[in-house]
Write a structure and sequence with these properties.
Layout: H1 2-28, H2 46-49, E1 65-70, H3 86-104, E2 108-111, H4 121-131, E3 135-142, E4 154-158, H5 165-175, E5 179-180, E6 183-184, H6 190-196, H7 202-219, E7 231-233, E8 245-252, H8 256-263, H9 265-287
Parallel strand pairs: 1-2, 1-3, 3-8, 4-7
Antiparallel strand pairs: 4-8, 5-6
Length: 293
């Protein structure tokens, strides 16, 4: 009996020593013992870390959200020359409008880009939809072959076919921003194109047209418009089927008067004031049930 007990003790003793070593290592050992590195993984925090732009303004998520899109950017300079480039003008106008809306309070604002970043066209409206935007404004500037051939701003909404030949040409030129050396970067699916012209999207289109008319109303006598009414064209950046959207061609870069207006602090302030008032009038109407007029 004593011999069996001795054998048992001899068998269990090494196990006890091993268990004690493991316990001591866990209690007093340094992290990463046995390794010369420790891997740490930082998980994304919030929408901005996931690639979405920052939303500025009231913290109340119930406040309306406007997403402002500065056209072109990065390797796509848009219209103009090295001295005056569309991508720079549109960014300055977008920031001026953002500041105007934030100063007035009550409206949340996000920019699709706030620096010289290149975004493909579908990505711009996709950002607005992912953020849950209530209104999308894409800002551009145009140019013509003749320096004095055209001037003034134009407000566009989406249509399957342009309202006139000039509108179709401008839309084709802006849509080409998704082409590099003639190669299409990202095609719109046929399913999305079909949805855009579906009757179920009439409400969205009506809201877009209402906002466009408000811009024209607020800008009357303060901003030169090339067209006295809103125009329509098949702009790819406006192809979000459930998001009221407009494309604002702010003027012609190669027209001296337009270029001076767009490049000046006063011109940007006028633009921001006009569009800002239109935005507030639009949301006021929506809160009252979308009264027309």
């Amino acid at each position: 009996m004593r011999r069996a007990l001795l054998i048992l003790v001899l068998f269990l003793a090494p196990l006890g020593v091993f268990a004690a070593m493991v316990a001591a290592d866990r209690m007093f050992g340094a992290p990463g013992r046995g390794y010369d590195y420790v891997v740490r993984v930082d998980l994304p925090q919030g929408e901005h870390s996931l690639g979405l732009p920052r939303i500025e303004g009231p913290l109340d998520a119930g406040r309306p959200l406007v997403v402002i899109d500065a056209g072109h950017g990065g390797k796509d300079p848009g219209a103009g020359t090295s001295q005056i480039r569309e991508k720079d003008l549109t960014l300055a106008l977008a920031k001026a409008l953002r500041d105007e809306l934030l100063a007035g309070g009550g409206i949340r604002v996000a920019l699709t880009r706030d620096d010289d970043t290149y975004l493909v066209l579908p990505e711009r409206s996709a950002i607005a939809r992912r953020l849950g935007a209530d209104l999308f404004i894409s800002i551009h500037a145009d140019s013509t072959e003749s320096a004095n051939g055209a001037s003034g701003a134009t407000v566009y909404t989406l249509s399957a076919k342009g309202s006139n030949e000039a509108a179709e040409k401008i839309a084709a030129r802006e849509n080409a921003a998704d082409e590099i050396n003639g190669v299409r970067i990202k095609e719109q699916s046929e399913a999305v194109s079909a949805i855009l012209v579906d009757l179920s999207q009439r409400e969205t289109q009506a809201r877009s047209e209402e906002f466009a008319r408000l811009i024209l109303r607020e800008g009357q006598g303060r901003l030169p418009f090339r067209e006295r009414s809103e125009q329509s064209a098949a702009f790819a950046v406006l192809k979000a089927p459930d998001l009221p959207s407009v494309l604002f061609e702010s003027g012609y870069i190669n027209n001296p008067d337009d270029a001076a207006r767009l490049s000046s602090a006063e011109g940007r302030a006028t633009f921001a004031g006009i569009v800002g008032k239109a935005v507030r009038a639009y949301f006021a109407r929506q809160s009252q049930g979308g009264a027309g007029g």
